[in-house]
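Protein Entry — a single chain follows
Next Lines — sequence and tokenised fold
***
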Amino acid sequence: MKSNKEMDDVANQFFDLVVFLTSVRDIRSLERALIDSLKKILNATDEIVLYRVPRNSECNYLEIAAAIPDIHKQKRVGLLAHKYGAPQVLYDQLMEECIKQKCLISDVSQERTRTLFPIAGGSLVQGVLEIDSGFMAHEMVLLIERFISIYNNVLAILHEGEHDTLTGLRNRKTFDFHLAELLTPASQSNIVDNDRRLLNAESSYWVGLLDIDFFKSVNDNFGHVYGDEVLLLFSKIIEKSFRNSDVMFRYGGEEFVVVLSPSTKVDALMVFERFRVAVEGFEFPKVGKITVSIGISSLESHEQPVAVLEFADKALYFAKQNGRNQLSHYQHLLASGLLSETVVNNDVELF
């Protein structure tokens, strides 16, 4: 239990931590900043875990965004076996109550207190902060709740800046940052063990460009209101077709990008083809049927971000020039002689 003087010191620290938290400029860094900040005002033996609620509401697990100490050193957290992406845990009854009721949950057992704080964005709970500690004074609980309120406000601002306002998918600015981050040597050295094992087993990340066929005619024939509805429904098909560990973006207009988590060539082709078929079979209100052309390329660490996207773009162009409503794989087209390799010099080639 902290003394009054210690609580005063905590209050003084609070303002410095708020300055630190509000200086962060992307969501992943913000998640880490939250638990790093809280650790400074909690006891050394306290354990802190920040969970994300997956975008797919049917998932029965939570993703671990950040943890102190390292999640693999916490015996109380049982990790689920899975192939890629963030560590996962099944949520229990207390977590479910915290999410559904959007309220603080506290459980005391064996002289330890487990406290769950909801991370809410608007009407939805986007995450759960769990603190496993000794006795936690009521004043400390209130302080943490206020800190989380500030975190929620910063999270909302960053989310708005990173996401497309119509579809809710990540925007082009976020894609450029994400792709550059994946291709940096530091990122390659920090790949989690599961992802590294898959990458060593002839798997790789994949970049897919998805372009709605003849979308201009949708706007011309039905108006921009129905055009926007097509974009919105199209984005929903994207979210349902790809995995929670894949990252989806609206790149601009009727063009979307998916960065596929480590997959073999066979699996990548299957996933993107399944999406193409799902779009082809969907009945869009008033508009009816639409189709999508797709260009994909494997993502190699030695490539420049602009080159990786250009490869996928060349494959997309091939698909559109050869009948549309199909999937083209850049490396396959190259090996088959259907595309010629572009020599890129030291100058950045824009397209």
